[in-house]
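Summary of Year 1 activities. Much of the first year was spent building the evaluation harness for sequence design. The harness presents a backbone, in tokenized form, and records the residue chosen at every position. We chose the following record to illustrate the format because it has been used consistently in internal testing since the harness was completed.
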């Protein structure tokens, strides 16, 4: 679906923006294997982590080729494009934008370097010292115009890291990475490469997951263990927080660039990761089922049927039903092919109640008291629509249970929630939210209950979106946000001398170019710039 503001969405209700997934990264070093297709299938397994753009970079030991575009993995690549990506090492990326808008220029992997060395990089997470890193890049160029992807209009934190890694070509990339990585603050799982070597790195807090796998003839890294298993790799271990690994013809090398201070994202267990992923020894599906059991203990109710909102609410619904002794059933039918549509329903169609994503299963609902399990409430629009549909289908009572606490704070570590002002739990208490969405009762799992379900120590999890307690301190000067680099003055953004007169194209006035959120990104578009695409 397309939101009224132009932003792509496949939510049930226009205008409702559920927590958007973190990105997915994949890397493989495997001489003799078709690494482009391995990466394609790895990204396919990680498609849930980002649906805005996809890209793959490969190297044959001499040069790096990159193919990337806006859209899903299956839309971006075909047999022809994959066959052109030859080599023995590759990295890939699925993007959901968290710094830098959803534009072609910001698609990954990013590319940087010189004749001496080329660097391609893919990033899952979000850095919180982007402005500081921009200043470092400006210092490197000492007033000279910045080229590469930044010069072409890339406004992501990933492009800044690529530029920093590409500097000092007389030194090894490994040495430069060990110097750059400690300067980064925030959440990052990187896979990057030069012509000969695959690298992977994870931030000291290990906010986002990253796993290492083994092929018969090589090594693989991926955001989730499920992607390793999809391509037939065995899971070896997780990349440790604060670890950099390098893989080449000499084998695998590991470096610790920072002390590990684990703060894994608890929302990976609630919603983000695939149910078959394993994070820190805990199968995500088992964690979600246990969250449902805990919900039933904390918020019991007399009812005839427990249903889950597909897909992420279903495991918790089975747990709730088991613990409560209430039958579990299917209450919604999901359109498995809804994906992302670029066709926006007209207002008339919306008033007719067009339902692209879910329909109630009326024969299972009519005349019954229903418990509906969902993973979170953001604005409340989706739950309001679901409850209306269930009442129209004949439900006599509707009791909503949520397998996470109220979301009250935005995430700056790689999840794009609504703004704090838009989060319904900020302005209303539980009873007011219940009345707003039209439920007969509403219950959220407690923070302690959610954390206990993960089998992880509370001290090693980040739950800032529920508590406002950010484990990685946010910049005091307030220079943070998705569109930070796009809204800075152009001379600061590009390193130009402020005294130089800028053309309308420099100021982004040629075609009013805006990203999918409607933010002017200051980049001239159109066919005249096609050859500038890397």
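For this record, the design step produced the sequence shown next.
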């Amino acid at each position: 679906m397309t939101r009224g503001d132009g932003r792509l969405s496949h939510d049930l209700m226009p205008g409702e923006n559920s927590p958007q997934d973190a990105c997915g990264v994949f890397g493989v070093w495997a001489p003799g294997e078709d690494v482009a297709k391995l990466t394609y299938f790895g990204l396919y397994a990680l498609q849930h982590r980002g649906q805005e753009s996809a890209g793959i970079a490969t190297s044959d030991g001499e040069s790096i080729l990159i193919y990337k575009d806006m859209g899903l993995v299956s839309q971006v690549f075909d047999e022809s494009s994959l066959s052109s990506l030859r080599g023995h090492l590759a990295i890939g990326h699925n993007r959901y934008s968290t710094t830098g808008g959803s534009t072609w220029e910001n698609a990954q992997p990013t590319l940087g370097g010189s004749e001496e060395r080329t660097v391609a990089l893919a990033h899952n997470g979000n850095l919180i010292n982007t402005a500081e890193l921009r200043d470092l890049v400006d210092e490197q160029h000492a007033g000279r115009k910045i080229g590469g992807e930044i010069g072409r209009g890339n406004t992501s934190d990933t492009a800044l890291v690529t530029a920093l890694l590409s500097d000092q070509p007389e030194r090894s990339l490994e040495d430069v990475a060990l110097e750059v990585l400690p300067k980064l603050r925030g959440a990052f799982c990187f896979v990057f490469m030069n012509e000969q070597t695959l690298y992977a790195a994870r931030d000291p807090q290990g906010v986002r997951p990253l796993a290492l796998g083994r092929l018969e003839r090589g090594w693989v890294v991926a955001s989730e263990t499920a992607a390793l298993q999809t391509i037939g790799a065995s899971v070896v271990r997780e990349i440790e927080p604060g670890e950099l690994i390098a893989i080449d013809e000499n084998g695998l090398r590991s470096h610790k660039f920072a002390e590990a201070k684990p703060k894994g994202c608890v929302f990976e267990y609630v919603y983000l990761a695939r149910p078959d992923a394993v994070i820190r020894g805990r199968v995500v599906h088992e964690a979600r089922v246990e969250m449902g059991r805990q919900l039933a203990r904390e918020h019991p109710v007399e009812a005839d049927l427990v249903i889950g909102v597909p897909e992420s609410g279903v495991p918790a619904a089975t747990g709730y039903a088991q613990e409560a002794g209430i039958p579990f059933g299917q209450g919604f039918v999901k359109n498995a092919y809804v994906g992302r549509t670029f066709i926006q329903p007209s207002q008339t169609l919306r008033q007719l109640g067009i339902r692209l994503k879910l329909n109630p299963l009326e024969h299972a609902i009519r005349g019954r008291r229903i418990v509906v399990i969902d993973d979170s409430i953001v604005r409340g629009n989706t739950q309001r629509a679901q409850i209306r549909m269930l009442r129209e289908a004949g439900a006599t009572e509707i009791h909503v249970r949520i397998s996470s606490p109220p979301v009250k704070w935005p995430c700056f570590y790689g999840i794009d929630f609504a703004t704090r002002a838009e989060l319904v739990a900020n302005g209303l208490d539980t009873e007011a939210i219940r009345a707003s969405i039209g439920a007969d009762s509403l219950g959220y799992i407690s923070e302690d209950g959610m954390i206990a379900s993960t089998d992880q120590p509370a001290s090693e999890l980040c739950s800032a979106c529920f508590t406002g307690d950010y484990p990685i301190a946010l910049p005091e000067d307030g220079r943070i946000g998705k569109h930070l680099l796009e809204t800075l003055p152009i001379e600061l953004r590009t390193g130009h001398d402020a005294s130089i007169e800028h053309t309308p194209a420099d100021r982004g006035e040629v075609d009013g170019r805006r990203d999918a959120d409607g933010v002017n990104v200051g980049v001239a578009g159109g066919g005249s710039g096609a050859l500038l695409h890397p």
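Residues 421 and 427 are 8 Å apart (CA to CA). Quantitative recovery figures across the full test set are reported in Table 2.
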